[in-house]
Amino acid sequence: xxxxxxxxxxxxxxxxxxxxxxxxxxxxxxxxxxxxxxxxxxxxxxxxxxxxxxxxxxxxxxxxxxxxxxxxxxxxxxxxxxxxxxxxxxxxxxxxxxxxxxxxxxxxxxxxxxxxxxxxxxxxxxxxxxxxxxxxxxxxxxxxxxxxxxxxxxxxxxxxxxxxxxxxxxxxxxxxxxxxxxx
Length: 183
Description:
Blueprint: H1 2-7, H2 13-24, E1 27-42, E2 45-54, E3 57-64, E4 66-72, E5 75-79, E6 83-88, E7 105-111, H3 129-135, H4 140-147, H5 149-160, H6 165-168, H7 170-179
Antiparallel strand pairs: 1-2, 1-7, 2-3, 3-4, 4-5, 6-7
Helix pairs in contact: 4-5, 5-7
């Protein structure tokens, strides 16, 4: 509710983004136009991709009900549980994946997970496996890199199996679950 009050009456996308930046530490990544939208319902979930073209590059937001990751040509910008948001440029209001249409003017924002109050479930890498399979996007790998597990996971994988993290696959997630107490 507090965030709703934060952006209600902002009057413009820019003002809504400024208010969210002030309140949450949001970063406005880009303003552009939705160039493509692919949404399908699988197992009761909206799954797909939203492509946005902007002066600063082309962006791809993959989702499984929520935005899972935001990428720009050349790399990942945000990975759930980072908060990725799409605002309509005319109203400044956030859009759900079901509301986004090709040609729509939008702004892309992210809020780093460190700025959010997250439940313990967001710290369990095993919970991200089904989302990785549905979206075809790696999640756990980015969580490990972001929270400093990557070095420890590589050491453990190397010591236990002789495999690299990439080769270890599910073993990496299992080790991450055991290390989750440190997160």
